[in-house]
Amino acid sequence: MTFSPALRSGRVGISPHNSLARTKRLARSVPAGKHELTVFFTDQELDGLPTSGVDGLALKLGDAPVARWDDALTVDDEAPVDSDLIELCFGDFDAMHGDGALSARAAEVFESESISDGAASVSESVVSVYVGEIAEDHRFYLGLDAAGQPAQLVAIFRYPAAP
Predict the structure, then answer these.
(1) Which of 74, 81, 76, 99 is nearest to 11 (CA)?
(2) Can you tell me the distance from the alpha carbon of 19 to that of 54, in angstroms, rounded to the nearest whole number?
(3) How far, CA to CA in Å, does 49 sit from each of 46, 111, 113, 126, 160?
(4) With a threshold of 0.85, does the pTM exceed it?
């Protein structure tokens, strides 16, 4: 599944879907503009349940190949989300920060989607993701090109091994 969110400010925010006021901003800015986002789903039987979840997200920020990967950390030098968060939003920090109407729209995807499966939806500048209830670990990485400029932002969601 592919989306094209607009990151107008070039500042990326990540938050729980129901509290955009708690949006955390990533330390590194990215090129402003629309970027291709690919959502990867797992179709494995997870934890003995016939469910699917979101395996990862890849936001392509340019055409240059990734030369190295760094942890994507917030301006406070922390991981952007807790590992037990199952619903999150990310996108343009300026569009997300404190926008109650945007928070309500982000929540709509979770009310209309199956609660047991992963889901993703995009508004103009914010992506809402329901990772899946049994994801154990959430990691965000920033891929830098040879010149040290952001080339990709990747999120990986790890699930327990199937029995």
Answers:
(1) 74
(2) 21
(3) 5, 21, 18, 30, 11
(4) no
CA angle 56/41/16 to nearest 5° reads: 50
**Residue pair 6/26 in contact by the 8 Å Cβ criterion:** no
Contact 95, 61 (CB under 8 A): no
Query: How many whole angstroms from its chain centre is CA 17?
Result: 11
* Residue recorded with tokens 């922390």: 78
**How far apart, in whole angstroms, are the C-alpha atoms of residue 94 and residue 98?**
9
Is the CB of residue 37 less than 8 Å from the CB of residue 152? no
- Say if CB 3 and CB 39 are below 8 A apart: yes
Residue with tokens 């199956």: 114
Q: What is the pLDDT of residues 78-119, one digit of tens each?
A: 888 776 666 778 888 888 765 555 555 555 655 555 455 677
| Close Cβ partners of 84 (under 8 Å, ≥ 6 residues apart) | none
Per residue, what are the HEC states of 98-150?
A: CCHHHHHHHHHHHHHCCCCCCEEEECCCEEEEECCCCCCEEEEEEEECCCCCE
